[in-house]
Amino acid sequence: MPALGSIHAIARAVCTFQDRACPAGACPPCLERALRAVRAMREAGMFQAASDFDAWELAESSHRGQQDKAGRPYMAHVGRVNEGVSDLLAGLLGRATHDQFQSIMQAATLHDVVEDSAVTLDDLLLRGFSDDVLDMVRLLTKPPGDTRTYAQRIEDLIASGNLGAILVKLADVEDNGDPARLALLPEDQRGIGERYRRARARLHEAATALGWRDPREQAESAA
C-alpha cells in the first residue's frame, strides 16, 4: 500500500493544488475529495487490502499501555473477543462468504481502536480496511460527547441490522460480563454485571432474528 500519511495530508495537498487557503490546512470539501480519491485508488487495486495481521498489529499499537477495568492489559480483552467472535461465526457457516467472515473478525480486533485511541475511521480506510469493516467499527464506537445510555446504544446498534457488528458486541459483552472477570473489579463496580446480562440477552435475540443460530446451543442439543 502506498505510504500516504493521513487523510488530512492528502486533503492539504488537494487544497494546495487548487490554490485554496483552507482553515487548518484542509477544508471539508477537500477532505471529501481526498476520501473519494482514496476510495477510487482502492477500487483500482492501488491499495493492498488489509490483512488480519494488519488489524492485530494496529490494535496492539493503539492499545499499548492500556488496561481494562480490572487492571489487566487491554489486548487480553481484544484476544478474548476475537476468540468469542470466531466461535459465534460458526452459526453462519454456509450463509456468509469468506470475505464477510474476515471483515467481522477484523472489526472484532479493531472494535475499540477508534474509541480508545487517536486512530480514526479515515485512518482505517487509508490502511486498506474495507467499507464493511469501517461500518462495523463505526457502529461499535461511542462518539465523543455521546449522551445516550448504554441500553440506548445497544438498541441503536440492534436497529442498524448489521449482524457482524451485533455479533462482535455480543462477544464483547460476554467477555465484559464474565463472572470471573467481574470478580476482579472493585466491589462497588460489580453491579455492572446486570447491565451486561441485559445487553447480552438483547443482542442474542437480535442476532437470532437476523438468521444467526448460536452454535453453542446447537452443540448442547446434539449432546
TrEMBL record:
It comes from the Bacteria. This is HD domain-containing protein. It comes from Methylobacterium ajmalii.
